[in-house]
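Q: How would the structure tokens look for this protein?
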Amino acid sequence: MKKPKRIVIVGAGGIGGWLIPSLCQFLHFCNKSQEKIEVIIFDGDIVEERNFERQNFQELGAKAGLMKRKMSWFDSLRITAFTEYITNDNVRKHIRDDDWVMLAVDNHATRKLLSERFEELSDGVLISG
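A: Here is the predicted structure in token form.
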């Protein structure tokens, strides 16, 4: 299997908030090249106090932005955060051929949207949590 050019995580809350730190740690310590691995985080939601009991956050704010900041010490990664949701209007712009997408959302509409987007692509990996 070829190395991914970009890893896109859609959702940084209940599933993604626990996936992202482990994934970034793994990618950082397995990266033997001089080239940075691109990790892109999408989540249009904000952390609220009620999220603390089940999500991997200790402060309030935009989930994608907070997760990017938490992962910033992994210097072998180039992490980008989008504080927006993946929608019909932006899915073709943000999800491209050869992307590896980790789908960590709790709604069927986004799962369906990403599944349909991958039917349009010639190559890529979609993993739904």
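The chain has four helices and seven strands.

Strands lie at 6-10, 37-42, 46-47, 61-62, 77-82, 99-103, 125-128.

Upvote if useful.
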